[in-house]
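step 3/5: co-fold with heme C
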Amino acid sequence: MAQPSSVYNQCAGCHQSGGTGLAGAFPPLAGHVSEILSAKGGRDYIIQLLLYGLQGEITVGGAKYNGVMPAFAQLKDEQIAAVLNHIATQWGNDKMLPADHKAFTADDVKAFRDKKLTAAQVYDLRKTLGLK
Ligand code: HEC
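step 4/5: write tokens
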């Protein structure tokens, strides 16, 4: 198994080790991953966010961000599953997950490998979640 926290090192430069993000540049993951996972379609969305990145203006916690989230398709399926499980359970997110939440598996990630979306298409997908 991939070590979840070691994969998160690749995210921490932007989202910070405490998941706080950086004002004006990188959205927080604390309190926000649970929000994504509670939205209808959020589970499938967050896998594709990791595989294909994201580009477009979003609002998180009342603040606007308009940056580029890089794609992490170079990671193995199990590494993506591990980092998703990490961010879903850190910083209080574990207390706000939907009741039917299940841990991500490598197979969950693999199922989206052939979608081959662009970061802009991931943005379109995000709009269907009803997040702000
Ligand atoms: C180079 C900086 C950078 C790195 C590295 C990075 N991100 Fe991001 N991330 C961003 C930016 C910028 C956004 C917001 C994109 C936008 O404004 O469209 C974002 C958004 C997100 C979101 C919220 C998406 C949404 O729809 O609200 C999540 C979750 C996320 N990143 C997880 C991760 C994880 C997990 C990693 C590590 C595997 C990671 N990020 C690595 C810059 C980064």
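step 5/5: annotate
The two ends are 34 Å apart (CA to CA).
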